[in-house]
């Protein structure tokens, strides 16, 4: 296979991830194209690209970024070679990946076929089982009746969790401790899933009590080579959504690390994985791993992996999509042994949300925005600058902050110092809450599991 160098890449996204993609392209000598909705006409990602075009006139703030035909027509007209979908929006829509390829535009991500095999949680569980990787006990198919659900719950015992097959971002999930909650949960998860993903299909899993969330970053080239970049620990969650992410996990011994990475590689290998992806597991108190899902895209928390491996994952995605082998000098991963872990990294998601008011999103003008810098501090910001407008239409991520240190405690101290340096006025943020967590004993002892935030409400004050 020939390497086809890209001259121009479009980010079919907005906010920090669009900017992250433009930076990766610019360093590779590739021209960049932004798209923006009417609501985003003053947002920063528009100005960070070499060219920018308005899309979705009259369509609404979210739909603008979902218009496959319009985005592809524009890309064609502007002679774009490849499209990076970022995360969210069209990133896991196999029809978009196919439409790109049909138009002769490379899709920077896994093929539509891989997305179909792994994007749906029920389908992905099957892939894991065939690859010999343990899954959380669950239904083999989506549940189609209340009886089926009750039979499963009876056989494995409560609590159980109802999950949307197409789920993501913690939506379409309900935990049930008894029959009544299960019957309610089935209905509400299905209707939430239908509204959010256009697919009401749900299945059940045994609900593990107080697990840790451990996920493995993988990358495959188009020549059959796959590697992993070790794990991230994303146990610090609110409503099943990640808030703070760590790499590596402070809880794993080298043997356990090897075990979970080998499981992820088995799954990736069994589908001939191409481009970036994440294989997610829950780990119970006895440190048994259970596969839960695969995310066939770059994730919000990829920065912590970049910090501890020194590898630019978004650039690798682009180079792999051009047809490079992982072992080519541009990427420089001759074998798995070339990917080494060094130190510890922590990412905090700074959001425009009010922790004292149940994390309700806040809007308005950022009157003051002064950000931290210094040793081991990386910022990936969306629309963050003094005077910017925070609109109510999109998710409330303002800036991601990633700190690195030789050990977990130095990374945590850098994070604390960096959070203290922020000066943000005009909209409420979760910074005070993040500081509470970063300095909390349970966090510093590396003991957080997925129930940590729920069990420590004093952190929200
Ligand atoms: P999403 O795709 O919405 O992110 P996931 O399947 O990745 O959903 O799960 C998100 C989080 O929900 C997990 O990290 C975990 O905290 C919780 N969770 C999911 N499945 C289970 C389970 N079977 N038992 C306990 N917690 C679970």
From TrEMBL:
Record-annotated ATP-grasp domain positions: 125-322
Q: What does this protein do?
A: Catalyzes a 2-step reaction, involving the ATP-dependent carboxylation of the covalently attached biotin in the first step and the transfer of the carboxyl group to pyruvate in the second.
Active site (catalytic residues) = 297
Report the source organism: Trichloromonas acetexigens
Q: Which domain of life is it from?
A: Bacteria
| Protein name in the entry | Pyruvate carboxylase
Biotin carboxylation domain location is 5-458
Q: Please list the residues that bind ATP.
A: 121, 205, 240
């Amino acid at each position: 296979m020939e390497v086809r160098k890209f001259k121009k890449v479009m980010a079919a996204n907005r906010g920090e991830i669009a900017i992250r993609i433009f930076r990766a392209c610019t360093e590779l000598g590739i021209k960049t194209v932004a798209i923006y909705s009417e609501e985003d006409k003053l947002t920063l990602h528009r100005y960070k690209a070499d060219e920018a075009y308005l899309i979705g006139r009259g369509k609404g703030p979210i739909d603008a970024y979902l218009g496959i035909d319009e985005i592809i027509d524009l890309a064609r007209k502007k002679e774009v070679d490849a499209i990076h979908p970022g995360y969210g929006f069209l990133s896991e829509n196999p029809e978009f990946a196919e439409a790109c390829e049909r138009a002769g535009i490379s899709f920077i991500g896994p093929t539509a076929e891989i997305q179909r095999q792994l994007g749906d949680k029920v389908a992905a569980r099957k892939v894991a089982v065939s690859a010999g990787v343990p899954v959380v006990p669950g239904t083999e198919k989506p549940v189609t009746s209340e009886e089926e659900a009750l039979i499963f719950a009876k056989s494995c015992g409560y609590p159980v969790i109802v999950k949307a097959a197409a789920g993501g971002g913690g939506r379409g999930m309900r935990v049930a401790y008894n029959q009544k909650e299960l019957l309610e949960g089935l209905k509400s998860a299905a209707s939430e899933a239908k509204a959010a993903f256009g697919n009401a299909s749900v299945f059940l899993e045994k609900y593990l009590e107080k697990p840790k969330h451990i996920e493995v970053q993988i990358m495959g080239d188009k020549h059959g080579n796959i590697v992993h970049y070790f794990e991230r620990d994303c146990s610090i969650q609110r409503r099943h959504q990640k808030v703070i992410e760590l790499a590596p996990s402070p809880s794993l011994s080298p043997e356990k690390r090897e075990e979970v990475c080998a499981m992820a590689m088995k799954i990736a290998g069994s589908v001939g994985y191409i481009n970036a992806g994440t294989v997610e597991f829950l780990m119970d108190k006895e440190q048994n791993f259970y596969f839960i899902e695969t995310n066939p895209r770059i994730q919000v928390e990829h920065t912590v992996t970049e910090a501890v491996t020194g590898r630019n994952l978004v650039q690798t995605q682009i180079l792999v999509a051009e047809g490079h082998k992982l072992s080519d000098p541009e990427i420089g991963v001759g074998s798995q042994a070339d990917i080494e872990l060094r130190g510890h990294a922590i990412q905090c998601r700074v959001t425009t949300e009010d922790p004292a008011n149940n994390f309700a999103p806040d809007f308005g003008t950022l009157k003051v925005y002064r950000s931290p810098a210094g040793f081991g501090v990386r910022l990936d910001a969306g629309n963050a600058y003094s005077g910017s407008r925070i609109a109510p239409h999109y998710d409330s991520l303002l800036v991601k902050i990633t700190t690195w240190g030789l050990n977990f405690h130095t990374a945590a101290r850098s994070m604390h110092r960096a959070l203290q340096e922020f000066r943000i006025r005009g909209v409420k943020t979760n910074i005070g809450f993040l500081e509470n967590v970063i300095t909390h004993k349970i966090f510093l002892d590396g003991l957080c599991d997925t129930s940590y935030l729920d069990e420590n409400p004093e952190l929200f004050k």
